[in-house]
Amino acid sequence: MPIICINTNVPSRVVPTFFHAKLTNMMFQALQKPREVVFIDLRAEADLMMGGDRNACVYATIECIGRLNPEKNLEITRMLEDYFIEHLKVRRERIVIIFKPVSALYCSFNGELHDPKIEQDLDLPLCPSASKETGGSSE
After folding, report:
1. What's the CATH number where 53 sits?
2. What torsion do the CA atoms of 70, 122, 20, 55 make, to the nearest 10 degrees?
3. DSSP assignment of the chain, as one string?
4. Cut 0.70: pTM above it
């Protein structure tokens, strides 16, 4: 259930057509969550100002049950910054990323609340989509 929201004042015409699909694949692999539940919410042309100017900038949030910790957050930060620099032409010092851990009992999917075990990443061996896509084993 990772939800990645990207707000940027970059014009829509600058965003490559593959942006969402490639970012979905990157986040699915980084967070080891099924691709089917990775949400990408891109809001180009947002009315954003950073530091008193309107130069290109990005404010992103990543909400996820489990997986988020200082080491993983830094890994994802570097990956996303590089991606935004390359494809949105935003300078590193103009990118802010906020990580928001979500309690499983406060998130529903398919009519059910999530199992609290995933908050402790106890579902990692049970993530068959990640195993198939990355060529890894679920054992």
Report:
1. 3.30.429.10
2. -20
3. --EEEEEE-S-GGGS-TTHHHHHHHHHHHHHT--GGG-EEEEETT----BTTB-SS-EEEEEEESS---HHHHHHHHHHHHHHHHHHH---GGGEEEEEEE--GGG-EETTEEPPGGGGGTTTGGG-HHHHHHHT----
4. yes
**pLDDT band at 104, cuts 50/70/90?**
confident
Nearest 5°: phi and psi at 107? -140, 125
Sort strands 3-8 and 39-43 into parallel, antiparallel or unpaired: parallel
What digits encode the pLDDT tens for the residues 73-95?
999 999 999 999 999 999 999 99
- With respect to residue 21, please indicate whether it lies within any of the assigned structural domains: yes
